[in-house]
Give the backbone structure.
Amino acid sequence: MANDIQRQRYSQMIKQKAADMGFDYCGIAQAGFLEEEARGLEKWLSEGMHGEMGYMANHFDKRLDPTKLVPGAKSVVVLMYNYYPEKDVAKDDSYKIAKYAYGEDYHFVIKRKLKDLVKYIHEEIGEVEGRVFVDSAPVMERQWAQKAGVGWIGKNSLLLNKQMGSFFFLSELIIDLDLVPDGPVKDYCGTCTRCIDACPTDAIVDAGVVDGSKCISYFTIELKDAIPKEVEGKFDNWIFGCDICQDVCPWNRFSKSHQELDFAPSPKLDEMSRADWEEITEEVFKELFRKSAVKRTKLAGLKRNIDFVKPKGQ
């Protein structure tokens, strides 16, 4: 009984600290092999839906078993951090970048917070072994988030939450501390197919399954070669990432503006006209995206994307 009370107390301490640090939700899952997910991942890879993202085929066992990432792991703590902007700077008459990339790269912002959370655990609970993950290692974060009751996996394969929609980042602590797991929540997508219907490249091939090699985000960020001709005219002006399947999702009517100063976009981003984008220089690129995830494409990649979506004959 005493052990159960302690587990409950530690779980509540971690959740309360996460809330105090600005995380919008914290759920806990029991660490273990993802047996059901293993079949789905194997099928997804065998059908080539990862395109040129070769790293997705690496570390297959580690993706499915957190104890291979943290020996003796007992709990996966999943945290949600809102990034929905106060103002959407994506305009129909100009080029668009995904909302998650407006401000400072989330990897750095959230990892700083996770390290502070680990420090708190060490100070208040004791020596706990573990690792922090922010979309930077072979962790099936949406599957763990679903198990931890943070939300459910929608038809667009993103995690959805009834109170917040889907404009949030997920991160994890995999630790050897035995905590009280939360149960999964119900799937509330119902018969809605708005995300499937709205995807201009037909990347959502089944409920919860996205062919990564057909996704606009893949073409504009991951693909290093020329973008295939067959998707010409289908990008709706997106030049870095894509928010179409999220923008049409009814659950995102509950999205509220984030309170993270580091996610605020450069004021100049909102002022960028089509001509400004088409004439972007290295200097402007560095100023706009000094700490942003957009740096991943480099200027040459962004220019390739702009040239691809630019009306022909211009």
Q: What stands out?
A: Residues 65 and 174 are 11 Å apart (CA to CA). The chain has a mean pLDDT of 91. The beta strands are 25-30, 75-82, 96-97, 130-133, 152-153, 159-160, 168-175, 204-206, 209-210, 238-240.
